[in-house]
Amino acid sequence: MKVFISGKLYDEEEASISVFDHGLLYGDGVFEGIRIYNKRIFLLEEHIDRLFNSAKAIALEIPSTKDELCKNIIDTCKANDMDNGYIRLVITRGKGTLGLNPYLCNKPEIIIITAKIQLYPEELYKNGLKIVTVGTVRNHPEAINPRIKSLNYLNNVLAKIEAINAGCLECIMLNHKGEVCEASGDNIFVVCDNIVKTPPINSGALVGLTRNKVLELASLNKYKISEETISRYDLYTADEVFLTGTAAEIISVVEIDKRKIGSGKPGLITKELSTLYSDYAKDSGISFV
Length: 289
Ligand code: PMP
Fold this sequence. Notes:
Layout: E1 2-5, E2 8-11, H1 22-26, E3 29-37, E4 40-41, H2 44-57, H3 66-79, E5 85-92, E6 109-115, H4 122-127, E7 129-133, H5 154-165, E8 171-174, E9 180-183, E10 187-192, E11 195-198, H6 209-220, E12 224-227, H7 232-236, E13 240-245, E14 249-256, E15 259-260, H8 268-282, E16 286-287
């Protein structure tokens, strides 16, 4: 695979950046994970907008326009002949000193990596995930706002460690008020009395693009949707629970903290939303044929 770094394509083995890059030294940078379906880049414009907003929030000026960045992404996908897969778009603060000062880093790096992806085994998409809530609280919005998709994912990594230690592949993180927030790398939904609910943006979750698309598709298909505060009680007593994310897509959750969710099998509304989402995804997006 070829990897794009700041204007040039390199062979994977040759692709490298400085050890003085603050992306490495301090997790100082932003990123996006983008999906490719059938030689089309899914929700590209939305990803680029979110990237620029994340960058703005950390006072990082991306050395490229949105259009140039889209062209770089398309060229990288073409060079790697990607039909289906995943794009990791990373902007680092760039090379600096060993001190924190980001203003001493004079050129952010733009990195575009493409890869094949399958987040969970097929069997789990059929039977659902068993997960736990964890003690690691999601970043306080006035510390690092979770709307910033930054290279500093230690908060999520700590949660993931707790999940794995508990024998699970994913987990649910609560916010600083003890409300349900999101999974370590996905957003969370519950279905209750046929209403499709997810925590509001100010719960302290990433504003997931899959989340937004699922809310839109649910509403277009006559489901009632609601962005509202969700407690652990609401999770345990929900009819259905599912997670959404670019890589994970839509995956059902059938057990949380040893409580069976609904019937203990993926729910009908989750399945229907999943079909609506894959039907939508397979032929939308920017084509690069
Ligand atoms: N929350 C977190 C913490 C994430 O990292 C992600 C992306 N993997 C999501 C939610 C889902 O966002 P999206 O649907 O835009 O991929």
